[in-house]
Amino acid sequence: MLDVSVLKDKVLTKVDDSSADELLFYTEDGEVYRMHHYQDCCESVYIEDICGDLNNLIGSPLLLAEEVSEEREPLNTWDESFTWTFYKFATVKGGITIRWYGTSNGYYSESVSFEKVD
Question: Is this model's pTM higher than 0.85 or not?
Fold first, then answer.
């Protein structure tokens, strides 16, 4: 698993957000990166919100690519265990924040994976 900071200084040609549980980042040099979660039985991890315009990330070097943790309330009061994960990206055109939400019974991962697609 990679840190999203590997995208810093890269130029994106496309961001595919057609799925609620993964994003694909395509770079100018032909690389593809996938942000997702390997789902298991007693958990749910998904993109809760994308704040900003993904088109701001296309065609200019990424000046910011980072994961940020923050304590927040759960989306549902019955969530036994939950994790908020935020990914911040920016170019000279503007920035975005991708907000992931994960919930489980406490025994399963609520983390987001970021990896290079071969």
Answer: yes
